[in-house]
Amino acid sequence: MMTEYKVICADSHVNPPPDFWQDYLPPALREMAPKIEHGDDADYVVFEGRRKKLNLIGAQAGRDGKDFKMEGRLSDMRGGGWLPDERLKDMDTDGLDAAVMFGGGPLATSNDDLYIESFDAYNRWLADFCDYDTKRLAGVAYLPMRDVDESIAMLKRMAARGFRAVNIPAFPQSKSLKSMETAGGAQVVALTGNPHGELQYDDSSFDRFWAAVVDLDITITIHLGARMARWNEPRFFLSDLLMTKFSMAEPIAILIFGGVFQRFPKLRFVSIESGVGWFAFAAHYMDMTWKKQRFWTKNGLTEPPSFYMDQNVYGSFIHDKPGIFTRHLPGAKNIMWSSDYPHSETTFPHSRESIADLFEGVPEDEKYEIVCGRAKRLFGIG
Fold first, then answer.
1. Domains of the chain (ranges, CATH numbers)
2. Residues 364-382 pLDDT 10s
3. pLDDT tens digit string along 48-81?
4. Are 4 and 368 in contact (CB under 8 A)?
5. Closest to 38 measured CA to CA, from 13, 18, 58, 15
6. Is the full-model pTM beyond 0.90?
């Protein structure tokens, strides 16, 4: 029986419990995995000499803003974050036919074996989660980007496992785990990478990776990694959150001006959770500067930057009326709606109401593309 899709969330999240590593890491590494301790005031994650309260910033679905709880117990987390049957119930409540799953990633460790194996462990856990109902749950695997051969090998394994999309850091990573730790922890760097590194994604050394991505027909995503919010510092959190969106323009611009999309016209590149209202501005600004500055910079593009935005670049948003208003402008057409469940910005359990408000006056065929059709094709759903 063919599933009829009307609403697909292009960006949902899983929150695997911290003790899942015990089941998914290789046996020789399980003793090194995080453990949960139950304290009088909260549950604690114990790992490599650190003992931290369980952070709940990514598990606020179902709570009003005034009731947000930043730290607590596993029992405070909504079950849909790691139990697929509970996720499907919440999706039914929210009126979602399918959802694309992000989250997880590697352990924040300086142990190289544990670091790399934690990618595979998380990806296998996510594959098992989505196997509960592959017509409704589509997972995005996570890859390291510190060595091209390592990344290609893992990419091929993920494709063989059935993943149709992979998430990479916004910038290439440093090869040294110690430098990653200094920059804010390996788990954060799995999303960010090193924006000041000698090599960036436009370097020809990464062309073998992009070629493999195209050959395997995989969609590439980056996810708020160009700049991370300081989650534990309320003074900076709100301003940081804004900049996590706009900063995503940098890795996109590097790929455009560096000719990656010119060399690989079939490469699909998605900026997740970045919002899209800035897409039209970015495309227009890049066009204008390219026209004047391309000669002395010896830029080799044969088409203006907006051409590659339309050809290769996609984006997801949660609540972004400007993005919908500008959808017909150059560079701004490839946009997708998302609920961000179960994070603090989520529209759950009022996604249908949010969609109705966002798309008031938008023709049904255009609305369908943004809330369903584009994500369905991009992530191979159904």
1. 8-16+77-378 (3.20.20.140)
2. 999 999 999 999 999 999 8
3. 888 888 777 666 666 676 666 777 787 778 889 9
4. no
5. 18
6. yes
